[in-house]
Design goal:
The chain has an eight-stranded mixed sheet with strand order 17-16-15-13-12-11-26-27. Strands 18-19-20-21-22-23-25 form a seven-stranded mixed sheet. A four-stranded antiparallel sheet has the order 5-6-7-8, with no helix packed on it. By secondary structure, the protein is α+β, with helices and mostly antiparallel strands. A hairpin with a 2-residue loop joins strand 12 and strand 13 (154-158). It contains 14 helices and 31 strands. It starts with 6 loop residues before the first strand and ends with a helix. Its EC number is 1.14.18.2.
Length: 577
C-alpha cells in the first residue's frame, strides 16, 4: 500500500482583530515565520483562500489594476490572471483552477488556513470501472442516514438509527423502518458510523444488534474525540470496533474497498466515506459541512448527502432581543434556501450519475416539543431534487423506507422501471406513533438521584467539565416541560472567568447567557457526563443572551471537549455522606 494517512497542516493563523479588519474582496497575507504568501477573498457569504503562487510557474500574484470588481489578481511573471472569487484562471481562460485551502474559524473568531495532504487521496491506486451485473450492487434505504448496501457478496450498512430517540428525547424517526431491519443489520459484513451524534451512533439500535452479534465489525474514522468515547458507559457490548486512519483505502475483498475522510469544518468529530466496488464509487458525505475541505471525487456513480437543515437549537430555542417569532421564521426560511442552493451547486459541480438526499428524516414528535415541530421547518427532498435536475443531467432519488436502487440498471438506463424497486403497495412510510415511555423513564430516573440532594454537585460538575478563564456568566435554571422553573429545582450562576458560583451577577463588564433546561435531561446529562448536544441540538433548552453573540469557545467545549470519563459521583457522595 503506497498510501499515507491524510493530515491537516496549519499554514497561517489570523488573530480576531485581523479577521475583523478583513476587507470585502481581496486580502494579501504573509506568514512571517515561513515566508509563504496567501490570498484571502471575502464576500458577504464566505471566505475563500489559496496560496499566493501562480500554477503556471510559481509567480507571485499582485492586485490587478484593470479589475474593477476587486475579484482578480495578476501574476508578476507572465500576467496570468486569477479570479479569486471562483478560483479559476481567467487569463489564459479555461486553463487551471487554483487549489483552495480550508478556512476555519477558531474559538475566539480568529482564523486558520489549513491544507489537507494528500488533497485527493482516493486517486492513489485508481481502478477503472468494470462491468456490473444487474443486482450486483443494490442500495436499500432503511431510515434517516441508514443505508443497506449489497456489494457483490458483501453487505455494508451506514449509520444505523432504527429505534428510540436521538439527542435525549428531541428527535424521533420520521420514517417507519422496514420490518426486517434487525435481520438486515445482523447479516451485514461491516457497519460504518460517521460520527458520535446519536442520530448516527444510536446506542438503543446497537444494543439490540449487540444482543445478536456483538462481534459485528464496525468502522469509524480516527477523529480527535473518539466516536465511541461513551461505549463503556452505554453498557452496549460491542467487541469489534475498528478505528481507521483518514484518506487510506481499506480493502474488504478484491472488489470492495472504502476510505474515510475528515470534515474541514469539524475535523474533531465529523467524517464521510467513499465506498468503491469494481471501480464504481459511492460517495456519502453524511453531515459534513465541508467534507474533505471541499475537495471531493467527481463523476461518482452515486452520491448521498444531508439536505434538510434544522439540526440545531438555533434559532428556535432562543428568545429576547431580535429573536421574535417573525425574525426566527424569516431566518429559517433564508437559511434553508441557502442550504438547498449550496447542495444543488455541489451536486452540479461534482456531477455524480445519481444523487440521493438523506440523513434529514427526523421529527420532533414528542408532544411537549410541538412548538419546535411546527416552526423548525426542514427542506423538502423533492424540492432539492427538482432544483438539481433543472440545472444538470444528474438522476435523483428520493428514498422511501425499504426502497432498493439497483446501481447497474440505473447506470445503464435511468428510465429502467426495475432500476428502483419501491416498497410494496400499502407499506407504511411515515411513523405515526413512537414508544416514548421507556426512553423518558431512563431520563426521569436521573431527577431523583442522590447526587442532587447536595447543592455542592454544581461545583463538582463544572470543575470536572474544566472550562474557565472566559468572561462569561451563565445562569442555569432547571425547568418543567414548559420551561417554567421546576419546583424545588436548582437556579444558579456560574462565572466562567474564575469558575465561581456567585449569588448575583458580578459588577464587572461580562457576557451573560441564561439557559433553561428540562430537569430530566439536564440531570441525566450531568449524572452521566454526556455532551450538551442532547440539550442544545435536542431542543431541551431555552436560551437568552446579552450581548447577542455566539460563545463558540463555551459551546464547543460543552458539545465536544468534555472529559472522556464521567464525573466520579461515587466518591462525591462518600464525601457528602
Amino acid at each position: 500500500m503506497g498510501s499515507i494517512e491524510q493530515t491537516a497542516e496549519i499554514l497561517l493563523c489570523l488573530s480576531p482583530v485581523e479577521v475583523a479588519n478583513l476587507k470585502e474582496g481581496i486580502n494579501f497575507f504573509r506568514n512571517k515565520s515561513t515566508g509563504q504568501d496567501y490570498i484571502l477573498y471575502k464576500s458577504k457569504t464566505r471566505l475563500k483562500a489559496c496560496k499566493n503562487m501562480c500554477k503556471h510557474q510559481g509567480g507571485l500574484f499582485i492586485k490587478d489594476i484593470e479589475d474593477l470588481d476587486g475579484r482578480s489578481v495578476r501574476c508578476t511573471k507572465h500576467n496570468w490572471k486569477l479570479d479569486v472569487s471562483t478560483m479559476k484562471y481567467t487569463n489564459p481562460p479555461g486553463s487551471f483552477c487554483q487549489d483552495e485551502l480550508v478556512v476555519e474559524m477558531d474559538e475566539e473568531n480568529g482564523l486558520l488556513l489549513l491544507e489537507l495532504n494528500p488533497p485527493n487521496p482516493w486517486d492513489s491506486e485508481p481502478r477503472a470501472p468494470e462491468h456490473l451485473a444487474f443486482g450486483e450492487v443494490q442500495v436499500t434505504y432503511l431510515t434517516h442516514a441508514c443505508m443497506d448496501l449489497k456489494l457483490g457478496d458483501k453487505r455494508m450498512v451506514f449509520d444505523p438509527w432504527l429505534m428510540g430517540p436521538a439527542f435525549a428525547r428531541g428527535w424521533w424517526l420520521l420514517h417507519e423502518p422496514p420490518s426486517d431491519w434487525l435481520e438486515r443489520l445482523c447479516r451485514a459484513d461491516l457497519i460504518y458510523i460517521s460520527h458520535m451524534h446519536s442520530d448516527h451512533l444510536s446506542y438503543p439500535t446497537l444494543k439490540k444488534l449487540a444482543e445478536r452479534r456483538p462481534d459485528i465489525p464496525i468502522y469509524v474514522g480516527n477523529t480527535e474525540r473518539p466516536v465511541f468515547w461513551n461505549l463503556n458507559q452505554s453498557g452496549v457490548q460491542l467487541t469489534n470496533i475498528n478505528v481507521v486512519p483518514f484518506g487510506i483505502w481499506q480493502q474488504v475483498d478484491e472488489n470492495l474497498r472504502f476510505m474515510i475522510l475528515m470534515d474541514g469544518i469539524h475535523p474533531e468529530m465529523d467524517t464521510c466515506i467513499i465506498v468503491e466496488y469494481k471501480g464504481h464509487k459511492i460517495l456519502n458525505t453524511v453531515d459534513c459541512t465541508r467534507p474533505n475541505g471541499g475537495r471531493l471525487p467527481e463523476n461518482v456513480a452515486l452520491m448521498m448527502s444531508d439536505f434538510a437543515g434544522g439540526a440545531s437549537g438555533f434559532p428556535m430555542t432562543f428568545s429576547g432581543g431580535k429573536f421574535t417569532e417573525e425574525w426566527k421564521a424569516q431566518f429559517i426560511k433564508t437559511e434553508r434556501k441557502k442550504l438547498l442552493n449550496y447542495k444543488a451547486r455541489l451536486v452540479k459541480k461534482l456531477q455524480p450519475r445519481i444523487y440521493c438526499p438523506f440523513a434529514g428524516y427526523f421529527v420532533e414528535s414528542h408532544p411537549s416539543d410541538k412548538y419546535i415541530k411546527e416552526t423548525n421547518i426542514k427542506n423538502d427532498p423533492d424540492e432539492l431534487n427538482n432544483l438539481i435536475r433543472k440545472n444538470s443531467d444528474v438522476v435523483t432519488w428520493t428514498p422511501r423506507p425499504g426502497a432498493t436502487l439497483d446501481l447497474s440498471r440505473m447506470l445503464k438506463d435511468p428510465t429502467d422501471s426495475k432500476g428502483i424497486i419501491e416498497p410494496p403497495e400499502g407499506t407504511k412510510i411515515y411513523k405515526d406513533s413512537w414508544d416514548f415511555g421507556p426512553y423518558l423513564e431512563i431520563l426521569n430516573a436521573a431527577v431523583g438521584d442522590a447526587i442532587f440532594l447536595h447543592s455542592s454537585w454544581i461545583k463538582e460538575y463544572f470543575t470536572w467539565a474544566g472550562f474557565k478563564d472566559y468572561n462569561l456568566v451563565v445562569r442555569m435554571i432547571e425547568t418543567d416541560e414548559d420551561f417554567s422553573p421546576f419546583p424545588g429545582g436548582y437556579d444558579y450562576l456560574v462565572d466562567f472567568l474564575d469558575l465561581s458560583f456567585p449569588k448575583e451577577r458580578p459588577s464587572r463588564e461580562h457576557a451573560y447567557e441564561e439557559i433553561r433546561s428540562r430537569v430530566d435531561v439536564i440531570r441525566h446529562v450531568v449524572k452521566n457526563g454526556l455532551l450538551w448536544d442532547d440539550l442544545y441540538i435536542g431542543f431541551q433548552t431555552r436560551l437568552q443572551r446579552d450581548p447577542d453573540i455566539y460563545h463558540h469557545l463555551f459551546w464547543n467545549h460543552f458539545q465536544i471537549k468534555l472529559p472522556l470519563t464521567p464525573p466520579n459521583w461515587r466518591s462525591f457522595l462518600m464525601h457528602c455522606g
